[in-house]
Amino acid sequence: MSTNFRMSYNNLAAADGVVLSASSALASFPASYAVDPFRSKKWKPKGSFRIDATNNKIYINDGTAQTATLTSAVYETGSDLATEIQTQLNAVSSSWTCTYSSTTGLFTIDRTAGTKTLVLTTTTTAAWDTLGYLGVADQDAAVADIRRNHTSERYAIDILLAQTVMFFAVYQSPDSQFCISDTATCYLKGSATNDYDTATYSVAVTPTASGIYYFPDSAVDTELRYWWFDFIDRENTDGPEGFSLKIWLGDYVSPAGMNLVSGFSARTIDPSLIRVSSNGVKYFNRKTKYLNISNLGIEWLSGADRVLMNDAYAYCGKTRPVFVSIDPTAIISSGIDEFTKLMYFDDDPDQNQLRYNMYAFKLSFTEVIG
């Protein structure tokens, strides 16, 4: 039977000993920050470029047709890749330069002397699209046509032993637009072995304005040890250093039946301070808005469900964050992201007996800010 209230309070990726790594990370925002309990700590990638056998060729003509082969690797920044391009061009020719602008996201290939043709019409395993050169005719070396922040960012999680993953989220601060654009390509992958390319579980996940929230199909086996979040968002004008991400990879608990009572309350709270001067001018101290959900009723819970709910609160109390999702399957809202939030219990659950071995709860939650 479909369920309509879920709580995920166990982030498997944050457990002791779990091995975390990322394709790139700014020095002050390492991969470990993505699962830190404080929302203010985030993973920020540098903007990596992945070069392999599918995109490692640059075709030029310096008076003679030449092919430069890039070393297959993950280059942590565009500047790192530009250095490799310049090195390999000059290994087969001379006087070539390549630069990358972190401001515009554009590569520039040039030559200080001599013929400098980019052979864009040769595309076999070419790097042209990776670098933002979209021309369909050969041209003189020049700035790329379109920005490229990166070709892939990858976050890897080894949870040490096979465990069933039931919920996945990528999120950030509640008061900002989610940094990954809705045109990005994003994947969640899992495997019993540490091999991304042969992952047994792979699903495209969709960014929303507030994050990525995904419940794997319960009919699919997700009891796996190794997990990866992979995203490509190479034209995003906020990237790459504008990305700041939190990651949750967990299970969830939920009552067994359709038990959510109509009438819960949800309100966005603005705690900003407003002061008025003696001549009537208003002054503002802006603070982060957050969601509050109250009067959330769940009825006709079995004895087993009552124990499940009490165990959840015993573990979390009012101090441990929990992902709350209201009606993720029936979608009573504009989308799963509207009522799937990282929250605290802001009051003790009100538990009532309805009849023998049947119970009801009233719950209230407040969104985590810091």
Characterize the structure shown:
This protein is mostly beta strands and 370 residues long. It folds into three domains: 10-46 and 151-250, Jelly Rolls (Sandwich), CATH 2.60.120; 49-140, no CATH class; 265-367, no CATH class. The protein is 9% helix and 37% strand. It has three helices and 25 strands. The chain has helices at residues 78-92, 128-131, 303-316, and strands at 5-8, 19-22, 49-51, 57-61, 65-69, 73-75, 96-100, 107-111, 117-118, 139-140, 153-164, 167-171, 185-191, 201-204, 212-214, 223-232, 246-250, 265-269, 273-276, 282-285, 290-302, 322-326, 340-345, 350-355, 358-367. Strands 1, 18, 21, 22, 23, 24 and 25 form a seven-stranded antiparallel beta sheet that branches. Strands 2-11-16-13-14 form a five-stranded antiparallel beta sheet, with no helix packed on it. Strands 5-4-9-10 form a four-stranded antiparallel beta sheet, covered by helices on one side. Strand 24 and strand 25 form a beta hairpin. The longest helix has 15 residues, at 78-92. The mean pLDDT is 92.
